């Protein structure tokens, strides 16, 4: 009986499960340096280990086995069943990254439950996390038609046409981003013309290349972040509401057409004029 194919499969399942434990521990320790394994390798190996533990006892039923192996299979089965009830759903839902878009070695990825997509770079079996991210609000309904990383000009930009459309132009290299300010400014204007962000479901992030002021379109509001934060609510029926946050807050009202079509450059011009009037 010990020479049967099924018995050999049982032994193979046991040894593979045992071998996976040090492999996963080693892989977890490797990722402490700011990298993660591609293809969710750690999660997938853990899932394989739990599945082997759940299947090995049923597969071995009816086989003649040494007493030690019998007890091992029973204990292993219980130690797989109990944590698997909680851990397997978590491994499928949490802690996994999903590639949203790719451009060469650069990827835009996200994790379940986090409305933020991060920029990473492929390095062999790894993805190294870079310190840049964008807001994506329609998790699970992605339609990223444009994702580009321009290393020459130091920028990341793109368009996403999901349930909550998004556009973004942000720096990944501040010096190059600033050096190519004129091209970046044209790019910001071009993306906004392609996808105006004038609905409650639209979002966007643009960083101006000359002074790195950030402007965010956030579902019917525009947030202009400088040393002072300006919040523009443009969904009112008769007027624009501008709230200025500077230690306390001041609320102002302007005509509906005070900022033209609300493009990033027009918003910036409006804020600069507003600053001048406050001096």
Q: In a few lines, what is going on in this structure?
A:
This protein is of the alpha+beta class and 279 residues long.
What's the topology here?
Elements: H1 5-30, E1 35-37, H2 41-60, H3 67-93, E2 97-103, E3 106-111, E4 116-123, E5 126-135, E6 144-150, E7 155-160, E8 166-171, H4 174-179, H5 181-194, E9 203-207, E10 214-218, E11 221-225, E12 229-233, E13 239-246, E14 248-255, H6 264-278
The strands making up the biggest β-sheet line up spatially as 6-7-8-9-10-11-12-13-14
What is the string of helix and strand elements?
Answer: HEHHEEEEEEEHHEEEEEEH
Integer average pLDDT: 84
Query: How far is the N terminus from the C terminus?
Result: 92 Å
The SS-based structural class is: alpha+beta
- The overall number of domains is 3
Overall geometry comes to elongated
Written account of the structure:
The longest helix has 27 residues, at 67-93. The strands form two sheets. The protein has a nine-stranded mixed β-sheet with strand order 6-7-8-9-10-11-12-13-14. The protein starts with a helix and ends with a helix. It contains six helices and 14 strands. A hairpin with a 2-residue loop joins β2 and β3 (106-111). The mean pLDDT is 84. The chain has 279 residues and is an alpha+beta fold. α1 packs antiparallel against α2 (41-60) and α2 packs antiparallel against α3 (67-93). It folds into three domains: 5-93; 97-197; 220-279.
